[in-house]
Design a protein that fits this description.
By secondary structure, the protein is an all-alpha fold. Helix content is 80%, strand content 0%. It has 11 helices and no strands.
Length: 279
């Protein structure tokens, strides 16, 4: 049951320190709320139509000028770079708060000793490796459950809809658990980077070797929460709901789940590497 203990400990870290969580990451939410509003106001019509899944006509495309397109692409690239840097900074600051009880100073909790670039690129590498494995497994599951999906879609009865939802949940849970186990076992290196300690991905994988069962239980809990909440949000926010409200609710959940995952990595590192007691 250690997996459930790790989860509950991590959940209490977030819920019990919501003020500090906002203190560490609130600046990022504020910046993106302002920038997102500004960018949305100046977005070309063709891009808004594309985001809404609507067809873009030649008339819409004719509004695009080379200079406008270059400026727009530059803005998107700048936003992606800033987002990547900011998320890594928030993760490092949260790791250090949990594991070192280090309180941030200043509006942006940045320190010159933070290895933000390394944290980001190692995180990307781990995510790609996990996604590759899950992609292969997902293909196999698609071949196995594909006919069931097609049958559920072809027969729009209440029973088949429930069957479709149940199958989606099971597949989502399996894939989510697999990617979480692979990711969590390798990602133990991320808290080490945040603490400026030396650890390789191979060492992280080896250190978690005796905790696969606990990590699997932890992964199942995280995957179940993500699948259930995502389905609920889709059902609640998928109708005639104000777009800004829908974005705010979805963003709030993504923020909480992100902080929870960083806490999980911190708890795993403290328990497995630093041999701390958890309860």
């Amino acid at each position: 049951m250690i997996g459930l203990t790790i989860f509950s400990h991590s959940l209490r870290q977030v819920l019990g320190n919501l003020g500090m969580a906002v203190r560490i990451s609130g600046w990022l939410a504020l910046v993106f709320a302002v920038l997102g509003t500004a960018m949305f106001s100046f977005m070309p019509d063709w891009f808004i139509l594309a985001m809404q899944g609507q067809p873009v006509s030649a008339a819409d495309m004719s509004q695009i000028s080379p200079s406008g397109m270059m400026l727009f692409l530059f803005g998107v690239i700048a936003a992606v770079v800033f987002f990547s840097w900011s998320v890594s900074l928030v993760a490092i600051a949260w790791h250090r708060f949990i594991l070192l009880e280090e309180y941030p100073s200043g509006f942006i909790p940045y320190q010159s000793t933070f290895k933000i670039g390394r944290y980001f690129w190692v995180g990307v590498g781990i995510s790609l490796l996990a996604a590759l494995v899950v992609g292969l497994i997902g293909g196999i599951l698609g071949l196995a459950f594909g006919p069931l999906f097609m049958n559920s879609l072809a027969n729009a009865t209440q029973a088949s809809s429930l069957q479709f939802i149940g199958t989606s949940f099971i597949i989502g849970l399996i894939l989510g658990a697999i990617v979480a186990v692979i990711y969590l076992r390798m990602a133990l290196v991320l808290p080490a980077i945040a603490l400026n300690e030396n650890m390789t991905i191979g060492e992280a994988w080896g250190a978690t070797g005796g905790y696969t069962g606990a990590i699997l239980m932890l992964a199942l809990v995280l995957a179940a929460i993500n699948v259930v909440v995502s389905l609920l949000l889709e059902m609640v926010l998928g109708g005639n709901v104000d777009a800004w409200f829908s974005m705010a609710v979805s963003g709030l959940y993504q923020w909480f789940f992100f902080m929870l995952n960083i806490s999980v990595l911190s708890t795993l590192y403290g328990y497995i590497v630093q041999k701390r007691d958890i309860f």
